[in-house]
Amino acid sequence: MENWQTVLFDSMRGEVGPWVPAIFYIAWIFIGNFILLNLFLAILLDSFLDEDEDDNLSDEEIAAKARIKEMKKEAREKEKIRKIKKLGMSMF
Questions:
Q1: Residue 57 to residues 3, 41, 52, 72: CA-CA distances in angstroms?
Q2: What secondary structure, in 3-state letters, does the chain show?
Q3: Other beta carbons less than 10 A from residue 25's beta carbon
Q4: Distance CA 80, CA 77 (A)
Q5: Is the pLDDT at 37 greater than 90, yes or no?
């Protein structure tokens, strides 16, 4: 959104005329902001839906999800250690 006015004024001096680029850039800004707002709201609503799903789960399902998260965390830690070892071996 920075310096779009400069590009607008330069394109308004072109052969097309002043109104076509002005309408194009203004529409582009409104549509771009609309899409960005919708993306933000989709991410926000998705996080709220995840919390609602967790509230409706039984204790066994919550424990299973916790075990899966723990397993994923351990796998990430093992991958980090493997990468560090690989980096260390490549230095020699």
A1: 50, 25, 9, 20
A2: CCCHHHHHHHHHCCCCCCHHHHHHHHHHHHHHHHHHHHHHHHHHHHHHHHHHHHHCCCHHHHHHHHHHHHHHHHHHHHHHHHHHHHHHHHHC
A3: 16
A4: 5
A5: yes
Does one domain contain both 46 and 2? yes
Backbone angles phi, psi at 17, to 5 degrees: 120, 170
- How high is the pLDDT of residue 74? 93
Q: In total, how many domains does the chain have? A: 2
Q: Specify whether 72 is located in the same domain as 86.
A: yes
Mean pLDDT across the stretch 30-36?
A: 93
Reported as a single tens digit per residue, the pLDDT across 57-71 is 677 877 888 899 899
Query: In whole angstroms, what is the distance from residue 30 CA to residue 64 CA?
Result: 45
The reply to whether 10 and 49 lie within a common domain is yes
Q: What is the pTM of this model?
A: 0.45
